[in-house]
Write a structure and sequence with these properties.
Blueprint lengths: L8 H10 L3 E6 L2 E5 L7 E4 L6 H11 L3 H7 L1
Antiparallel strand pairs: 1-2, 2-3
Length: 73
């Protein structure tokens, strides 16, 4: 299992885009991402550093594993 610390919201958005997620828009300080064929939306806070729990929840909701996400970074 890799290290999930010190990943910004901007880096997370880029990684999810590589996995096929597309930005739909922004609500406050959160980027909302959607993927065709998936009923879940991802709401990624645009912070300098995402908490590990928040990042793990986003990864789980996207259907990726932690290892797959770290490869996309």
């Amino acid at each position: 299992m890799g290290k999930l610390g010190n990943i910004s919201g901007k880096e997370a958005v880029k990684a999810f885009q590589k996995a096929g997620w597309q930005p739909l828009g922004q609500v406050g300080s959160h980027i909302v991402m959607v993927k065709p064929g998936v009923r879940v939306n991802l709401s990624i806070p645009q912070h300098k550093e995402l908490s590990v729990g928040t990042l793990r929840a986003l990864i789980r909701n996207s259907g990726l594993t932690v290892e797959e996400f770290l490869e996309l970074l």
